[in-house]
Amino acid sequence: MTGASAASFDNWVPARAADLPGAALDWLESQRHQALARVRAHGIPSSKEEAWRYTSLKGLLEQGFSAAAERPPLPTLEALHPLLVPGLDSHRVVLVNGCYIPELSALGPLPLGVRIGGLRSLLASEPDALRDRLNGIAEGHQSFFAALNTAGLDDGLVVMMEPDTRLDRPLELIHLAVGMDAPRVAQPRHWVALDEGAQARLIERYVSLDQSLYCTNSVLEIALGRDALLEHDRIQSESPNAFHIAGLYLHQETGSRYHGVNIGLGGRWARTEIYARLAGMHAECDLQGLYLAGDRQLMDYHLDVDHAVPACVSREGFKGILYGKGRAVFDGRVVVAKEAQKSDAAMSNHNLMLSESAEIDTKPQLEINADDVKCSHGTTVGQLEPEMLFYLRSRGIAAPAARRMLCLGFAEEVIASLHAESVREQISEQVGQRLETAPID
Amino acid sequence: MLSVKGLRANVGENEILKGLDIEVRPGEVHAIMGPNGSGKSTLAHVLSGREGYSVTGGSVTFEGQDLLALEPEERARLGLFLAFQYPVELPGVNNTYFLKAALNSIRKSRGQEELDAVSFLRLIKEKLKILHLDDSLLKRAVNAGFSGGEKKRNEIFQMALLEPKLAILDETDSGLDIDALRVVADGVNALRSPQRAMLVVTHYQRLLDYIEPDIVHVLAKGRIIRSGGKELARELEEKGYGWVLDQEQAA
Questions:
Q1: Could you tell me which residue, B60 or B127, shows the higher pLDDT?
Q2: First-to-last CA distance in chain B?
Q3: What is the largest CA-CA distance in chain A?
Q4: Is A425 on the interface with B (CB under 8 A)?
Q5: Which end of chain B has a smaller Cβ tally under 10 Å, C or N?
Q6: Nearest Cα residue to A242 out of A205, A217, A225, A261
Q7: Quick one: CA torsion of A38, A41, A42, A46, rounded to 10 degrees?
Q8: Closest Cα in chain A, distance from residue B162 (Å)
Q9: Residue A39 half-sphere exposure, CB side, CA atoms within 13 Å?
Q10: Structurally, how many domains does chain A consist of?
């Protein structure tokens, strides 16, 4: 694909810019234009770039995705029902193919000082509410797909919490993909800002009602003020034919805490990029992850954690189960700035390979420029322990069931770190079901 | 119940078992004693179907079936149980979930109904008491972070739950202090019955003070070189394995 023109991605941006929300806003238009210019100048990422060394865009380009000109057919509330998490009581926001759909959402009453709504409607009602903020976190990272998202910036979720506000129920963000006649790309754009001392829990879910082919390219920017706390469960269970790209851009002030758990189950080609900037002392960033890469499925993770100031803590713990011709990439990078003394970072990536044709490229990197730090990284790629398998079988448990039990045991640590109990139960069940059908014997 | 005839087994190129014979009837408790490297653990492993051993000769019949032709789980379902010398830690695998899967797979193979959650819990709480184990064990991962004593008690607890026909205790006394040993031995003794046989593999006579065997075998260099009553164990303790090995050589 080298030398290919980024024009292949032009269709990701709606042809008539005037149709986009806030088209009359100079600041927003200039963001879009700059982003599009960057996309074109950069060209399609090639395997010569470090960030794309292990992941080919060939399959994605072949689909000829384009932004939908028409609105997707909306499902009924009843149709949505099987996609809900049993027992989860949440402020619910539903996006269909990237568009915020109030009729399907159930926000309920919100505490004073907490604003939750759609990006498009906010740009219409308060054009300058996000001026100098939106794209402020993502822009500096120069990610190709984030730029593409910005170029077509349209709709998504906006959360703004004033100092010391607290959401008692979790906020659930459902990305629902509905299949359309032609292969469509949706590029939702989210902005979540928690001011000083605010606390919330966000459950982000990517789901579909069928097995359709589509592409999601979402960008979520999160700004955490001093001592703010965000707990974030992120569940990717896209259709098995979907392409999924998600960028998470995090900016953390002094004493803020971000605890994120990423579960990757769906999609045939899924790439997640997480950028965290620890910009205030004693900030804490915990990134956990579990991915299942089944036959011909790609799970690609890029983590970039920047300890810019002293005394911050970060954890990056990802686990993967691969089978069939499953592939996964873990490209984790922690950078400790020269002045960031007393930084504490621990990165790990453990992979369980259930077949010989599964493939993992794991590359944890620590770039330490300070001398008084506590940093570590560890990687393992292994099979199920014969000893463990024998122990279970010696108790009468058949080999396939024993293998599944051990795989679930391996995944359990990450599943247990999910913040919402009902989500935990559902994921535990879904991982079990996936392993049930996995050819791991 | 168990009939081992001329059993030969290798680990790699090394022949460990060199023609071993043993006959176990229901209700009997057999002790297998022997110095380090005599093949005690190999015997326990070969009988339970662990990988890494190749059987080069002889036969093993258990409950009328060719034991060596069966998978480990099939042996367990037929009523064989191995209490491990080093119980394996299974991080993330919940104990209750594991025990329920094990019990129900064995019950199913016996044509019994699978237990529902309530009756299962009632049953394990009852068995826990026998081993002086705390309920909290059920919420933990199998053997993960257990103390040596807890691991051994957990083995006997599983045995109590699965109710095997033949239990093989592989160096169950190793690493136990005297109090833990007593609890484990009490647990084992509570499971003695006219229908159940046990094969107690041990290096020391100490365990046999608590679990009294009917028959004691001395295993050396891959063969049973001597069998006798429980007094043989005491004699070995006094005179050491050298004594019986010398006798063997003289004969």
A1: B60
A2: 31
A3: 71
A4: no
A5: C
A6: A217
A7: 150
A8: 8
A9: 23
A10: 1
Contact flag A410-B102 (C-beta cutoff 8 Å): no
Architecture of domain B2-250: 3-Layer(aba) Sandwich (3.40)
Going by the DSSP 8-state scheme, the letter that residue B166 receives in this structure is E
pLDDT value, residue A352 = 97
Distance (Å) of CA A368 to CA A245, A282, A304, A365:
29, 18, 13, 10
* A390 domain residue, yes or no: no
By C-alpha distance, the chain B residue nearest A386 is B51
Distance from CA of A400 to the nearest CA of B (A): 11
- Residue A405 lies inside a defined structural domain of this protein: no
Residues of B in contact with A390 (CB under 8 A): 49-51, 72, 88
- Give the confidence band of B245 by pLDDT, cuts at 50, 70, 90: confident
Residues 6+ apart with CB under 8 A from B179: none
Say which range, A3-12, A23-32, A282-291, B55-64, has the weakest mean pLDDT: A3-12
Q: Do B98 and A405 touch (CB under 8 A)?
A: yes
State the DSSP H helix or E strand holding residue B197, giving kind and residue range, or none if neither. Answer: strand B197-202
Closest CB from B72, B94, B162 relative to A393: B72
3-state secondary structure of A58: helix
A7-60 pLDDT per residue, tens = 678 889 887 666 777 778 899 999 999 999 999 999 999 999 999 999 999 999
Q: Are A340 and A372 in contact (CB under 8 A)?
A: no
Instruction: Give the tens place of pLDDT for each residue, A341-365.
Output: 999 999 999 999 999 999 999 999 9
Domain range for A65: 6-383
- A243 contacts A65 by C-beta, under 8 angstroms: yes
Per-residue pLDDT of B125-144, as tens digits, reads 988 888 778 888 889 999 99
Inter-chain contact B105–A391, Cβ cutoff 8 Å? no
CB-neighbour burial class of residue A432 (10 A; exposed 0-12, middle 13-18, buried 19+): middle
Query: How far is residue A309's CA from residue A278's CA, in Å, rounded to a whole number?
Result: 7
User: How far is Cα A410 from Cα A420, in angstroms, rounded to an integer?
Assistant: 20
Going from N- to C-terminal start, the domains of chain B cover 2-250
Contact present, A191 and A28 (Cβ < 8 Å): no
Taking contacts as CB-CB distances below 8 angstroms, the residues of chain B near A393 are: 49, 71-73, 76
Cβ <8 Å between A397 and B84: no
A344 pairs with which residues across the strands?
A313, A374
CA A158 to chain B, closest CA, distance in angstroms equals 37
Locate tokens 């008690």: which residue?
B153
